[in-house]
Amino acid sequence: MTISSELRDDGIRVITMNAPPVNALTVQGWFDVAAALDEAGADLATKVVVLRAEGKGFNAGVDIKEMQNTSGFDALLGANKGCYAAFKAVYECSVPVIAAVNGFCVGGGVGLVGNADCVVASDDAYFGVPEVNQGALGAATHMARLVPQHMMRTLYFTARTIPAKDLVQFGSVLEVVPRDELDEAALRVARDIAAKDTRVIRAAKEALNGIDPINVNQSYRWEQGFTFELNLMGVSDELRDDFAGTDKSKGASQ
């Protein structure tokens, strides 16, 4: 199962992504993340969500191979809609979302984490937005919630990554712990939130979103428009083929 959701007795709901080998989510996977978060927020027994992952890393973004295996623009449209739905579901979840990040968190992973309410990470975690390498744009909106503007631009233009420990100084990552302590670190914060009156916490989540200086849904949608332009130009398809090792001129696929 790619996405699982478990509600604990203490009101903490744990949503886990598990899509081997690298948690690069298919179109359906992104919609499943969105559905799990929407369900969590709608369930009044849920007081807080911990979003975590199994495997080598937290999230490697969109499944490029699925996109290159699909004719036309169906997979591109699906991935864009799925990512938008998932990021929006994190941001608009009626209860706080704590992201527990292990290993790599790149591309779409940054979209999830950047919209979370709290981030804890393992000491091997790192973040990046390598979209320019694949001829796409997106998640700058969310990286800008993790690092200052000039850092975001440098990371974006160069496709470099930044270790979780460097984000603690910006306050975007609460703490960095050994990997085997990550789940407990996330649960510590979750238990603090779950101990509060959930009616107040739900009101607080809505209130904080209401005073956010940036409309994350609108700004991400703006970025996606440029991704569509690059695809229509043929640039994105060429770069994705290079990344995935596909030679469409020879009828190859993966």
TrEMBL record:
CDD domains: crotonase-like (cd06558)
GO biological process, one term: fatty acid beta-oxidation
Pfam families the UniProt entry points to: ECH_1 (PF00378)
Keywords attached to this entry: Lipid metabolism, Lyase
Example GO molecular function: lyase activity
Family per record: Belongs to the enoyl-CoA hydratase/isomerase family.
PANTHER family from the UniProt entry: (7AS)-7A-METHYL-1,5-DIOXO-2,3,5,6,7,7A-HEXAHYDRO-1H-INDENE-CARBOXYL-COA HYDROLASE (PTHR11941:SF169), ENOYL-COA HYDRATASE-RELATED (PTHR11941)
Name used for this protein in its record: Enoyl-CoA hydratase family protein
Organism: Nocardioides caeni
